[in-house]
């Protein structure tokens, strides 16, 4: 039965956490709110010029390297995020205990604008590289050098990134569906390994959220910009 209130939801989660797995160890449960980034400059250009021209003229240029949010994207994140989060907190939504972000600027910016400071922990956001967008030849999905990210986002913990330059992105290969779904599995393992908290936000991207829902729940989702996909996950 689906809980009808946050109080009932918390009771269900607490009950699950008290239960044991067949090997006698506690069940590991996470409530994860997957947040797709707001509109980026690459989204704006794609909508303006259409797919053929975007692919032929813009997608591989440095003009869209690590595409940031547009001014509309910033306002959209603020207007959709902070009021709705506050309303749910007042209805006794469990407090957010950790915010995880991809290393792509628009995901970090979305998390920064989606939440008011009092709605998330005071600790720095945690960057995990595996929750980034499809690895393809589009420069909008290539991350900036680590040192530059640290300068731009001083309030983000990048300690789990080890390479100065982007070693995952390729100018010649587009990640297949099987490859991104395998990365989604690896990300979920990393999430349970690295993040001890239960109630977690992951600010990420369309394709990785689609892949996570496919491998974890066998469902198809296609979230819009700034849309939240909440999932209860258990470590296997």
TrEMBL record:
Classification via SUPFAM superfamilies: Phosphoglycerate mutase-like (SSF53254)
Signal peptide stretch: none
Entry GO CC: cytoplasm
An example molecular function term from Gene Ontology annotations: phosphatase activity
PANTHER family: BROAD-SPECIFICITY PHOSPHATASE YOR283W-RELATED, HISTIDINE PHOSPHATASE FAMILY PROTEIN-RELATED
Name this polypeptide is given: Phosphoglycerate mutase
Organism: Phytophthora megakarya
């Amino acid at each position: 039965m689906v809980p009808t209130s946050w109080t009932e939801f918390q009771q269900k989660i607490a009950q699950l956490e008290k239960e044991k797995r067949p090997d006698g160890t506690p069940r590991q449960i996470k409530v994860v709110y997957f947040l797709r980034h707001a509109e980026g400059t690459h989204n704006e250009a794609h909508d303006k010029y259409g797919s053929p021209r975007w692919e032929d003229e813009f997608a591989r240029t440095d003009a869209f390297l690590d595409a940031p949010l547009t001014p509309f994207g910033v306002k959209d994140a603020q207007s959709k995020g902070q009021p709705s989060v506050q309303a749910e907190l007042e209805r006794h939504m469990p407090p957010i205990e950790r915010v995880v972000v991809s290393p792509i600027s628009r995901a970090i910016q979305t998390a920064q604008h989606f939440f008011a400071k009092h709605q998330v922990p005071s600790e720095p956001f945690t960057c995990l590289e595996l929750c980034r967008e499809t690895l393809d030849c589009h420069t909008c999905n290539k991350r900036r050098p680590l040192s530059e990210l640290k300068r731009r986002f001083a309030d983000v913990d990048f300690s789990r990134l080890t390479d100065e330059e982007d070693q995952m992105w390729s100018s010649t290969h587009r990640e297949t569906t099987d490859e991104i779904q395998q990365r989604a599995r690896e990300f979920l393992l990393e999430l349970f390994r690295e993040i001890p908290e239960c109630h977690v936000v992951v600010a990420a991207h369309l394709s990785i959220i689609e892949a996570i829902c496919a491998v974890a729940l066998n469902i198809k989702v296609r979230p819009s910009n700034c849309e939240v996909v909440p999932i209860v996950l258990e470590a296997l």
